[in-house]
Amino acid sequence: MSDESRTQEPGSNAGPEGDNDEHQQTDEDKMLDEVAKQKERIDAIPGDNTFGNAKRRAPHQKKLGQLEFKLHIFTEKKRLARELSKFEEIHGAIYP
Prior knowledge:
Helix content is about 80%, strand content about 0%. By secondary structure, it is an all-alpha fold. The protein has a domain at about 30-95. Helix 2 (about 15-45) runs antiparallel to helix 3 (about 50-90). The chain starts with a helix and ends in a 5-residue tail after the last helix.
């Protein structure tokens, strides 16, 4: 009876992993939404080619670049994880 209380059912591990994938997708969606909102903010600034306009746009464009960089790093980490798992399926674990 004590052994049963310590061991988990095989199906019980599948739930949190699935939730983790959904959570990651949610993070990616949030990042995409932030990038879209930042682009809208930049587009909402009146478009004359003056120094003052460029000065007003600069912080927003900087923030957009930072958000796009974070999104790129996030997606690249996911891609590398997928590629590593494919490699390990073919060639076995790198570090046994």
